[in-house]
Fold:
Amino acid sequence: MNHNKHILRRTMLAFSPKILISLILTLSLALIGCSPAGDESGRKLKSDEAADDTGYNQILKGDQIEGYRQARPGVPLSFPEDHGEHPDYRIEWWYLTANLTADLDNDLATQEGLRTNREYGIQFTLFRNRMQPPAETEKEDAGWATPQIYMAHAALSTPTGHYEAEIFARGGVGLVEVQPEPFVVRIEDWLFGKSKKADVNLNATTPITGDILPIQLALDTGEFALDLELSGNGAIALHGDNGFSRKHPTNEVGSYYYSMPHLSISGTVQLPEQEGGGEISVSGLAWLDREWSSQYLSDEQTGWDWMSLHLDDGRGLMAFRLRQKDGNHYIYGSLITPEGEVTTLDRNTLEFEPIEYAKVSAPDGDGRERVRPVPVGWQVGLPTESLSWQVHALHADQQMNTLFPYWEGAVLCAEPAQCRGYLELTGY
Amino acid sequence: MRAGPVAKAVWQHYRRHPIQLFLLLIGLITGVVMVNGVWLLNETAKRDYQRGEQLIGQQAYGIISSANDRKPVDQANYISLRNAGFSNLIPVVSGTFKDTQGRFISIVATDPLAFSAAESLEEDEGTDGSSDEGSFEDSGQKGGQDDNNQSVPDITDLMLPPYQFWGSAQRMAQLGLEDGDRLYPAGSSGALIVDRGAGTEAGIEVGRSAGIEVRQIPERGLGHRLWTDIGLGQQLLGMTGKLNYIALMENEGMSESERESHFEKLAAALPPTLKLERSRSELTLSQMTRSLHLNLTAMGLLAWVVGIFIAFNAIHFSLQDRAPLFNQLRTLGIAQPLIARLLLVEWVVLALLTTLIAAPVSVWLSDILLPLLGRTLDNLYAVRLSYQSIWSGWSLDVVVRALMVSTAGIALAAAGPWWQFIKTKQGEQTLSGSAMEEMTRGTAWQIKVAQLGVLMVLFAAFIAWLAPGLYTGFLVIALLLLGAGFIVPVLFSKGLASLARQGAASSKLTSNPESMPASKPAGKPRYKSAAKGRFSIAKWPVMHWSVTELKWQMSRTHVAMIALVLALTANVGVNTMVNSFRQTVLDWLDQRLVADIYLRPQSETASLIRWLEAQPEVEGLLTQRQIDVRIQTASDFATDYANSDNAGAEVTRPDVKELSAALLSLSRDDLAQRAITLYQGAQQIDWQRFEAGEGILISQRLHLLHGLNLGDQVWLSSKGVTAHQGETQADSALGGRDSGIKFTVSGVYYDYGNPNPQLMVDERVFSQYWPQIGISGIGILLSESSHISTLMPRIRDTYGFTDRQMIDQQSMRTVAVAVFDQTFVATEALNLLTLLVSALGLACALYLLNERRRKALGVIGSMGVSKRRLYLVSIGQWASVGILCTLLALPFGIGLAWVLINLLNVYGFGWSYPVDLPWLRFVQLAALAGIVTSLTAVLALRRLHRWSIARQISEAE
Structure:
């Protein structure tokens, strides 16, 4: 698997601009979905320019979006159905990040010293990408002819290292399974779904509550393995207009976007051989993001910085910054109560500024290694509440060297604050 | 410094006779190109084998297939293996479909997402980037997406309806396709290709009506096949939900132990219906294809030898022409060693020049031949060669090889003349011509050569008798060819000499038809009869002269004649071999294909058989089951050892030969049994004992290559399926050897075209031991074959059989013959090239000779014989030379075919077949040789005849 992906990435880059563009943009959409009105000036595309860009900044033209189902405001989300997939939309993902602390009785974590000695992070993402618009002649059971292509990423950040793996698979033939009730997201042998322990309680008479907990995450990449369970506060936070994130000032286009920001997580992590290969018990906080849409970035945007924080007071903070070519970056965020109530933040109510850069080596769009500075330290503030945190990466090297490379890793608030979270950086 | 002017004098010769230089170079270059091109071709193929079995340019080190039979693997098995965490697996559907032009197109279909196919593609694109420029022009056709990416094939277009085929440039050229052209699958399956619209206006039947686009990609182990998505592949090949096999791929940087542990883990995880085998290794691949490569090498060497003869001729003439000059130089006091050194320099320069030209041309030749070889390999051994461009892979090696081969060639060609030149130093050289000429002209020399030829042929026969085998076979061929080359021209000369004597002795030749062969230009009988009256006095002397003069010519073109006879012999041999093989296979097919319709059911057959039996047209059904078995047999050596030295030797566990083979059931039906053509045991076979389960039939391959003989005992076992033991037979059949079932070989049957070993047992015996194996093939016997057209559509409608699963006898035969005819394309191409090279050699020799005939022709002309008549005489002379040489070469060629069939093919393929003489081909060849020789004579004469008689006489020395 590990070597595989290396080949895959190079392959896909050489072979397949379409997949490259669409899958890369899947990542970007996480943020674009909540992009507010504005910055329409530069949306006209120059395809040659786009092709020169590195992967995730390439932009699909409008006519390729046509034919897909579009997100519209005023359509209430409904659970558990919306935990499942929305096949007529171009892109969709299930995005889980978690900050884990190794239990004290672990041999590996008994060392006295910095808090970071026991800090771990994990990421699991399933991306769905529809390659062709829906057609009337399309069969329910298309088999290999399905237009659905899936990509899954799994990553483990240890106090000193970072490991990742990815899987590509086609829908239609049983390699990928997604269903809302009981909740299952599976790609090959990577499983993210309703825990088996919960199956006992599940029967036909149980009213559908939308509660998908507990969820099990079980995967083995060959290098590391995760066996974790999500439970606890399953509050759902609907971003934007009741889950519709507008991305255009006048047209009603955008994405559906919700989060489960207050999940508890615990279980075991099988460490890679480079880290001794042992199994450790961990527990911590997890954040699940769900988004689907058929829209894409404008070429004005060079990338984005996204952060989720589990604040000390029990609230969740989602913040992101869309970097504009003209330097007029767009800042946006959601402050989420433990009950899932969302306060939308903008550049007046949210401070989100890089304060520390680290040089990270990562493959370029053409597959060549390149070293570039990446903002791994941030100043995050809520001016209205006179709160602010300095947030730093667990360590700088949490680059995802996947087919479509990006930086995604665990972050910690500087003492005395104890908040933790995840940071995603693309376009560097 | 005197070397300068001397060199100028010596070398100026070629300025006056550029044609000699040209011919010398042509001889050398063609020889070097052939031998070097074939070498390069073989090397490329062997490099390909080194990478082992490949799938889209990636190494597959394991193959998962059905454990017991050749049935397809359920796709569900693949899905569950992947879902169990086994990555590095590729689902593969491969096969051949027919397009609307009736061509058979081999495809391999995979899921491109399963494993990247393209590690090397990127590199290729890096290097080939500029050369791909041309495809940019096609990008406009598609419209819609006007990205500059359009010229690079997009993997999503391969994966999604309406799909694409991707192929190498070579394969596309073979199919006559340009990047972006379309292929149109024939038959009902075509309609199934696209089952969902691909956007706005694209309809359901896109695949049928608009065809499937073919894109050109850099070669990546595809070779003869086109690559497409598994979705399309399954539809085209009627394999929905099925796979031919699952390939286990090697990860980049995987260590040997990781590989092994992964292999073991996967093998352990397989359900009993599947088996995991290692893919064919480099060793297996090169062993399988060894004889073919030797064959090609031999052809290349043959062409080289022919080239050397041409070069020898040219050098010989160049020295002879310069003899007066050398004499003059010597009388001027120039030392012989200086001239000798100059000649050496001359040849070294020629060798270098040859290298310079031959190296790139040989790359070009092998580049052209590679797809032909790939086709042969695919048909004969199911080995797929990647059609990589040899241009991109060629190295200094090629130049070094070319230099070596050309140096060796010129050394061989010049050795004789050179030695002669050195020798003439002592004895004073006469003006009338070199001693070399005297020597080659002398009867004694010819006799010696012929004697050598006879010795070679005898020696060849001796070797063939004493040590038959693949490599000795090639020695036999070489000896036979050279022997024929040495004997035939002498035979011819002797014949002419006796004819001439006869003509001189009896002046009343008028009624003797034997004296006329030289005057018999094939298409001119009317002229002859007309001439009889008018030139009755002049006629016979001219004929007489022409015979004598031809004898003179022949003595001077002896070496060129040897080359021609060599090529003719080789041609007769290869033609006879291919034709014999073809005829045998056709006869065999006629006997083997007894049923009118053949079905390949993929699921339960019980209801199908009941239905078929109820049809009024059906007279009978032949069913076949198949299982893969392991054969164990006590090896001959072990048995001998145990017998001779058995004092306390442990006989219980002798060395055992093990190999896997397909075991087929043979219908208990007279018709089916008679359809098996037996090679051995036809007389004594006891069908009753066979039906009782005591006997087994083995394919000829098992007999010839694996040494199994009539009466031998074999133990059969199958992995994953425990053979069910009949109560009565349990004891005797078990035989105590790894619980295999014991059989006695009671017959050896021909199994042409099958590169794998095979056995047959009676159908009830088969079902008794392996009751769980279902029917894999059904042959339907009809009361009248005209019912084929009514029954086949009914089967299709009732049971959903596709064209791939159902075929009638005639179509099956057509397919077999079509495949056969493609198989020897590479061999025949090389064969023809050799003949052309030798014809060229003869033309060269004649051309040079005619420069020397001017005077004689002038004299004849001055005696009142018209030019036209002289022309005709010349044509007659040489046409008869060509025809008669072919006839004389026939016995040698037929002998060669016998050697090819009985010594080479037997060991190369494991098939034997009788020599079948293609008389029509022989007549064609004789006619062709006659035309070629007379044409060369005409060409040589044309220049001459532009001169006046006076000039001919005065200018000729």
Q: What stands out?
A: Chain A has a mean pLDDT of 77. The longest strand of chain A covers residues 254-270. Residues 17-32 of chain A form the longest helix (16 residues). The CA atoms of residues 174 and 370 of chain A lie 38 Å apart.
